[in-house]
Amino acid sequence: MGNVFKGGDQRLDLSNSGTELFVDVLTLAVSDLAEDPWDYRFAALLTLQYRSVMGRGAVGFDLEDIDGGATPHERARS
């Protein structure tokens, strides 16, 4: 059993252990670097996807669901 992360035409299939490690590393990085409201919302989204925090296991999500910003500058920063 694994998890699928998608963004556009790209797809990343990970085992449950691989997903746990992936989300752990992303959560730590985002938590350390968060400065703006968008950063904190992204960290919260990661935490909600991680069932070890919200339950058991982890779930995939579509990277296109993450709001990267309204302007080219905001998208580049995100």
Keywords summarizing the entry:
about 80 residues; two-stranded antiparallel ribbon; 4 helices
Structure characterization notes:
- The protein has 78 residues and is an alpha+beta fold.
- 53% of the residues lie in helices and 15% in strands.
- It contains four helices and two strands.
- The chain has helices at 16-33, 37-49, 51-54, 72-77, and strands at residues 2-7, 10-15.
- It has a two-stranded antiparallel ribbon.
- Strand 1 (2-7) and strand 2 form a beta hairpin.
- The radius of gyration is 13 Å and the shape is globular.
Could you tell me the radius of gyration in angstroms? 13 Å
Task: Trace the largest sheet across and list its strands.
Answer: 1-2
Strand content: 15-25%
> Whole-Å distance between the termini?
31 Å
Uncertain segments are none
Helical stretch tally: 4
Mean pLDDT value: 76
Name the helicity range.
40-55%
Series of secondary-structure elements, N-terminal to C-terminal: EEHHHH
Main sheet, how many strands, which sense, barrel? 2 strands, antiparallel
Could you say which overall geometry the principal axes of the C-alpha atoms support? globular
Give me the secondary-structure category: alpha+beta
Counting DSSP E segments of at least 2 residues, the number of strands comes to 2
